[in-house]
Amino acid sequence: MKDSLDPVLFTPIQLRQLEIQNRVMVSPMCQYSATEGSPGPWHHMHLGQFAASGVGLLCIEMTNIEAAGRITPHCMGLYSDDNESALRQVVNFCKDIADTPIALQLAHAGRKASSARPWEGRKPILPSDGGWEVVAPSAIALQDGAPVPRELGSTEIADMVNKFADAARRAERIGIDALELHAAHGYLLHEFLSPISNRRTDNYGGSLDNRMRFVLEVFEATRAAWPVTKPLGIRLSATDWIDGGWDIDQSITLCKLLKQSGCDWIDVSSGGLAPDQVVPVGPGYQVPLSERIRQETGLITIAVGLITEPRQAETILSEGKADMVALGRGMLYNPRWVWHAADQLGAQIKYPQQYQRCRPSQHDDVFGERNAASTR
Length: 376
Prior knowledge:
Blueprint: E1 13-15, E2 18-20, E3 24-26, H1 41-51, E4 57-64, H2 81-97, E5 102-107, E6 135-136, E7 150-151, H3 154-173, E8 178-183, H4 188-193, H5 208-225, E9 232-237, H6 248-260, E10 265-269, H7 287-297, E11 301-304, H8 310-318, E12 324-327, H9 329-333, H10 337-345, H11 360-375
Parallel strand pairs: 3-4, 3-12, 4-5, 5-8, 6-7, 8-9, 9-10, 10-11, 11-12
Antiparallel strand pairs: 1-2
Helix pairs in contact: 1-2, 3-5, 5-6, 6-7
């Protein structure tokens, strides 16, 4: 039975001069399939299927601002001309087959860099084994047995800010429509925010204002390098799920400052900083974090995390708990999620002409013609 009211999930949303046709985003998902930071055939297939899937916004995976910022040697980057050329080919491919807006997530893995791929065990790769030295706000290892990162100096921090801005300029040249900074899941920006990973005693550590400084500098430099007409958001771990760590109250303070700096959305995630986190995992478990940030800052929020069912997504939006939803694993399992959601909720959505005949509403016409022909 279809819903009688027009679903919020399938209404447009405006971000600066970018109009997004529905409220579903493909979440950035690492594929660990790049060569020296450059995407290849796998990325054409992976992103192309989503470009033609009816989603409102397609966000390309965590793309790193320097080679040493990659999680694995197989992660994507946007720090060289070769990276830029290869990613341009992927973006052009997606735009040739569909008009879906394309976002890109910029990041640096910090102390979680130089590790093996998930299906290889995620173990740290030491420099002696082909890895590289990892850096962080403080010389604190991720966990027992992990390498102790080198603490970044003040000159290196300033250089890192510039590298985010440089990557944004490359993204503009290849036709990216929106950018998202990755300040979640225990990567470098998140590491500066949390008192668990940041024990610095200079202007980048200690007080909340100091711990937020690097993130705000990166955001402001990226905003200045990115066209004013194009949106810039940030993915945030709204809480570490650890006593004494980064939490929702600090996140709200940061989000208010980001809003003043021109932030267009908060992609609300959580956790990932340290192994002693206690996460209450369940359907929509991060939605309350999105709701609080949205209510207390007025920012557009994107809810993410075990959102799998169309009516679940519609309820989140219709109750004002988020403005968009992002799906990751659910999209991998069912790249046609948006088509199925539209059918279930009674919405109309554009199919590629080549796939029109698969639309369920067309089946009756097809079978009807066949039945009529058989009686002639």
